[in-house]
Input
Amino acid sequence: MFVCKNCKSKDKFELMFSPDYKGSKSFSLGYNSKNEIEITVDGYTFVPDLMFMNQFAVCKYCGQIYMWDYENNYLKK
Ligand SMILES: [Zn+2]
Output
């Protein structure tokens, strides 16, 4: 799970697509059997890493970008 370091919400985000992205931008979230977040974009499913999150994910609550951390890392700090 990813946590927003600004507002502390978890896994609540939208993706930013580059203007030249050609797909339909259909996007959904789920969790796999290891309880990792999975993103599906236009039929392609993957487990995002922190680098991906900090490049493409916008917090749904506070609108911040580049503010994600792994929940486990964050709780230890
Ligand atoms: Zn936030």
User: Anything to note?
Assistant: The longest strand covers residues 27-31. The first helix runs from residue 50 to 56. The chain has a mean pLDDT of 92.
